[in-house]
Amino acid sequence: MNLVETPISTFSIVGRCVQTGMLGVAIASKYPAVGAVCSHTRPGVGAIATQAYGNPYLGFDGLDLLSRGKNVESTLAQLLRQDAGREKRQVIIIDQHGQTAAHTGNMAAAWAGHLQATDCAAAGNILAGPQVIQVMVDAFEQAPGEELAERLLRALEAGDRAGGDKRGKQAAHLQVVHVETWKYVDLRVDDHPEPVAELRRLFELAKTELFPFRDLYPTRDDPGADWDLDDVARLSPPMVGRQ
Question: Which of the four CATH numbers 2.60.40.10, 3.20.20.70, 3.60.20.10, 3.40.50.300 does domain 7-195 have?
Fold first, then answer.
């Protein structure tokens, strides 16, 4: 496996919505375009965040293993066996059933650690302290009635308020998949002095100017609707439980 030789000091969370089956990742870092390397999702399969000395192959290969029926623990074990840089890495995994697995290598820069909970797992390195991932999990668990993207973003905001990456702030990413191959939510901030706040701004904008178009997108069985502006105006943002 290849190694990205820059430490990606990061805090992240992977999660699943039990009502809809959505899977997603939220992540923030003092590292530009963090989502391009660290966030990995596949509908009906799982979500993975890889960070510290980030290795995107942990995401690619991990989702392939999950799609072939491996459970999260055996998937993580195989990924680590194949990766000579495993002690520099962090990886968190959640599958379609809400099962989680996590790894923080011995060489991940302090403070580094992970936390697994019901339908989510959080991790971080070069953080202000363990409170960062604790409040992320707490925020996720305290909003079970919200759509997954909102829950993940609230978790990221909580981690940011708790000190986040102690090196500073630069980038953030929110990615969610549902039943189709295309990303249900895919918003990123690649370079900004307040990336999590900017991600929230983009998310609120997307609720009215982007997400309503999802009802018109093609599926494998349907070519999709014409993008008639009158129809779009009548669409409303999706709610929890919508299939």
Answer: 3.60.20.10
